[in-house]
Amino acid sequence: MLSFDAPSLPSPLVMRECTRPRFDGNLEKLKDWLAVLRGAGVRQSGPALLMALENLRKEDVSAKRRLTILSTLKVPILKTCAGLPKPYSGESTEIDRSSGVTLEQRLNRLMFANLLQALRQFDQEYPLPSGRQLRRRQWTIRNAFRFANRQIRYAGLWRTPIPPGTWRDVHELYLYLMSRRHGSSWEPGASSGTIGDFDPSFEYKLLLLLGFALKTKPSVVQSEYFMDGLEGWAVQTRLDDPHNLLGRIRLIIVGVSEDGPARQLESTLDSPFRGWVLQPPYPYIHEIEDPFGGTAFGMQPPGLALSA
Fold first, then answer.
1. pLDDT tens, 22-36?
2. What is the pTM of this model?
3. Where are the domains of the chain?
4. Cα dist. 163→9, 16, 109, 154, 270 in Å?
């Protein structure tokens, strides 16, 4: 049994206790609160953790304190999400599932939003971070991408809508990391570079490939071969400057001002835009082709067609 699962409903006293997340004073208070949740079960811990994340966004605490709290909440949130019921197809209709997001999605979304808030606050408070502070910043970025990945994979696996704002925030996160490295908020085609052993550019391209595949061929997420191949394809994928591909047809474009995944242009690229052209390797394209003869890309890999 998961440590955040319980076979019975909590008592009214426990329920009242679970609704009071504590962020002030000694960190032991927060750990005590989590200990109460551990015995309450996911039906109580889920909403309580959701409330904690909502309240944390409004708390006036230092960046260091905010990250310490998020680090403490991370494992309980993951264990609670693992214990929450999934929207299996036999339990609800497609219409029902498309009407809103689940509790698990809301937890992942709020954790992601809190990490983004913490990252920006951290950079403001530590303009010249030490080595230890850089490792803390790396933890924040790594987990922001991980929780974004959880949101997109969940939507693909369970055929649910992605919470509004998710893709917009993913694009903004990558742009923000680029601006911190290059000194400007917009440099088409530039790489954000690695942070220790972590490469935000790779993680961003991984999300773009996954998002486009789910948009083009939703069933592909059930393919073990496809999911295992994503990381290798992300390494080979390029983000190209739209200025260099004007006149090409059926390109996959990433509009960073849009709240959505990469999408394919049905016509030629007539003017540049704020974003990139996604250039994945052909094995990735092959996996999301239409098995009945046609392809999503007009019988040739996107970006390879000549100008009309």
1. 676 678 888 888 988
2. 0.82
3. 12-84+102-162, 164-180+200-291
4. 29, 29, 7, 11, 31
